[in-house]
Amino acid sequence: xxxxxxxxxxxxxxxxxxxxxxxxxVGDLVQGDKTGDKPLSEIVKEYIKDKYNKPGEVFLGVxxxxxxxxxxxxxxxxxxxxxxxxxxxxxxRETQKTYWAVVKNKPPKxxxxxxxxxxRNEKNNTSKAHLKEVPDSKLASLDYVIIKELNNYxxxxxxxxxxxxxxxxxxxxxIGCPIKGDLKYGFDRSNPDGGIHLHARKLIFIHPVSKxxxxxxxxxxxxxxxxxx
Length: 229
Hints:
Layout: E1 12-15, E2 19-24, H1 40-51, E3 61-62, E4 71-77, H2 80-91, E5 96-103, E6 111-121, E7 126-130, E8 138-149, E9 154-160, H3 167-174, E10 198-206, E11 213-217
Parallel strand pairs: 4-10
Antiparallel strand pairs: 1-2, 2-4, 3-4, 5-9, 5-10, 6-7, 6-8, 8-9, 10-11
């Protein structure tokens, strides 16, 4: 059964005066969109308001996003100072992002660096990975390593060097390894909860105010395949 995030069951990884980091569930929408569904940003605001008994409007800044069917680490800013500095950190790639993915086909190599040029299609909200530069494409690169071999699936650890639209999904699909459940990028069937097996596992960055080094890890979803990765 799919569990939806609420202010009462929010999976908080880290919380201080300047930021709050949560473990996003499948289907959580990070920021409001045309669906009109309540986004995670509003749920986090409700959580803060409730926990600290805050009167009036709660400030919360969206720093980055995760695709709706993915899970894992999402950082929100609780002050405008933190938001400005976090935006700079993410924009300048001063963060280390590690993802876990489950794919059906074995990648060509045990570990490799993938470099593609991604072109976004706004109409169907996908990105296509090309080996050579094409008009309006953006350079995308990542490293992967196989961390687990199961009977039918392979667990990968991925380190991102760039942050492009649907980057991991498109690049893995381009090497014949679509992510489990990802119909949009070539997997043959959907997951029962509508999610995909892509999880923002770890994030390392310097705290925007205290300057301490933060290493954040998001617990994997409770799922038969994730549990053996």
